[in-house]
Amino acid sequence: MTAYLIVRAEVDPAVTDAFDTWYENEHLPDALKSFNALAAKRGWSSLDASMHIAIYEFPDLAAVNAVMNGDAIKGSIKEFDRHWHGKVTRSREIVEFSQEL
After folding, report:
1. In this predicted structure, what is the pLDDT of residue 100?
2. Are 61 and 55 in contact (CB under 8 A)?
3. % of the chain surpassing 90 pLDDT
4. What is residue 2's three-state secondary structure?
5. Cα angle vertex 84, ends 18, 66, to 5°?
6. What domains lie within the chain, and their CATH numbers?
């Protein structure tokens, strides 16, 4: 069943606009391609204006785990940290849905 990598990023308000532009134009397209994901989407929380959420869709859990243990994510993390170290804190979740109606 479909699996997702969900990245939550708490963004310093001082860099929100620059982060948003960079993520839209560089990071999301690059990650989609290098992760070989089926789809990628992102947005801002309506409850917490500093919370950015990106979701990468994969065909199954094995595909997500391969990305999480591969070189593509290491390069993505390195590039992210080069731009946003000290300004953005992030966490990752992997979710494999067990039911869909």
Report:
1. 84
2. no
3. 94
4. coil
5. 115
6. 3-96 (3.30.70.100)
